Amino acid sequence: MRIVTRLIAVSDLGCREIARRAGLPAQKISDLLAGRLEHLSLDELRLVYHTIDPEGALNY
């Protein structure tokens, strides 16, 4: 989770653009940044991660 939120913070993409590309509501990204993990599934976290860093070192 910390990796994903850090990637969002340093990304050139805005939260809304990340949500759009991931196919998620923008509120899900806001929830993630606010630490409300219970609002996201593991698959959604993975989707956000791969949206921000598609060539990341971690292959989940």
Can you offer a commentary on this structure?
- With 60 residues, this protein is mainly α.
- It is built from 4 helices and no strands.
- The protein has helices at 2-10, 15-22, 26-33, 42-52.
- The longest helix is centred in the last third of the chain and has 11 residues, at 42-52.
- The two termini are 13 Å apart.
- The model has no long low-confidence stretch (mean pLDDT 85).
For the structure shown, list the relevant keywords.
mainly alpha; 0% strand; globular
Order of helices and strands: HHHH
Beta-strand content:
under 5%
What structural class should be given to the helix and strand makeup? mainly alpha
Distance between the termini: 13 Å
Count of separate DSSP helical elements = 4
Q: Secondary-structure blueprint of this entry?
A:
Elements: H1 2-10, H2 15-22, H3 26-33, H4 42-52
Short description:
This protein is mostly helical and 60 residues long. It is built from four helices and no strands.
